[in-house]
Amino acid sequence: MRIQEHPAQRNVPATLGEGNTPLVSAVAQNVPSGGELFFKLENCNPTGSYKDRFVAAQVTHMLQVGDTACMATSSGNTGSALAAYCARYQLRCVILVNQDAPGGKLAQMQAHGARVLRVPQFVSNAQVTAAVFSLLQELSASLHVPLVVSAYRYCPEGMQGVEAIAHELASIAPDHVFIPVGGGGLYSAVVKGFCAAGGKMPRIHAVQPEGCQTVVSAFLNGSRRIEEVESRTRISGLSVPADIDASRALELLLRCGGSGIAVSDAEVFTAQGILMEQEGIYAEPAGATAFAGWRRAVKAGKVRENERSVCLVTGHGFKDPASVESVAARHQAVTAPLECLRETVCQLLK
């Protein structure tokens, strides 16, 4: 029997089967006067988020140049994806996260063998975040270890892998695409992908939590400058108070004719509940943010009845178990002894 060579030893793209994720239509009751609505299920990627596309391309680049270790910053999903791909390709991995990173994402990183450092106020506080990035860039240069951040500013090779989302959407020619925005990399990648694909250019909307609206605030104020903010949102993954790819995203937002939409955390949690209870889509809060933005746009009359929209569902519900508890609590499990089982089942079926 021929023994297959480990993929890390060959000049082949790193992969766990990411990409080409499902595109499903919304059920009718959730689309009042909002035209056709589709969900792009990026939560169906191998580790549960769109970040697999970024990490696959970035790890491919790392293997090509001979890297054997890396450092990374993450609010959760980049770290989860990077840990998995580094385990597959035998790369050492150190990941810095903030103190409040969701347990589901931390467990993923640790289960794949990544070394995780929790830094208080990292991500939520702009000054702490800037200091951490400054230190990591210094270490990256002195130790010759790549710093992996899902942003064009740091890892353009990896971000090119995210642009494929637009190519997969181009075939249905959407009129609107709603994208959750944290650092701005995902938004930038999708716009760049549509530009490269040619053909019809949809209006691509940036949706951010009100508690951390770096891009949207500048857009609404008519400014071309990103201001750092103190993050107050509870939406993990979208709490990015500093300008990483925000300036790039703002420039592309202004160029492509999209809108900047700010939504409250409450709107996001409502959208998450609808996705779970009425669409069968198990999404984390960040993964429901685009849908919250679409709902607000429909109410504002920005989406017409004859138009087609796509919302990106960027991350899986298992990433943030605590966020699911309030929805699950509405459907408590019932204990029924055998002698009451028939009656209980019949009652529950009514």
Tag the structure with descriptive keywords.
350 residues, alpha/beta, Rossmann fold, 2 domains, four-stranded parallel β-sheet, 10 strands
Describe this protein's structure.
The chain is an alpha/beta fold. It has two domains: 27-49 and 172-329, 3-Layer(aba) Sandwich (Rossmann fold), CATH 3.40.50; 51-156, 3-Layer(aba) Sandwich (Rossmann fold), CATH 3.40.50.1100. It is 41% helix and 14% strand. The chain has helices spanning 51-65, 77-88, 103-111, 126-143, 156-160, 164-169, 185-197, 214-221, 246-256, 265-279, 285-299, 321-328, 341-349; strands at 23-25, 36-41, 69-73, 92-98, 115-119, 147-148, 176-180, 203-209, 260-263, 308-313. The strands form two sheets. A six-stranded mixed β-sheet has the order 1-2-10-7-8-9, sandwiched between helices. Strand 3, helix 2 and strand 4 (92-98) form a beta-alpha-beta unit. The longest helix has 18 residues, at 126-143. The protein is globular and about 70 Å long. The model is unreliable at 1-5 (pLDDT under 50).
In CATH, the topology of the largest domain is named Rossmann fold
User: Which of globular, elongated, flat, extended, rod-shaped describes the shape?
Assistant: globular
How many DSSP-defined strands?
10
- What is the number of helices? 13
> Portion of residues in helices?
40-55%
Taking pLDDT < 50 over at least 5 consecutive residues as the criterion, the unreliable ranges are 1-5
Strand ordering within the main sheet: 1-2-10-7-8-9
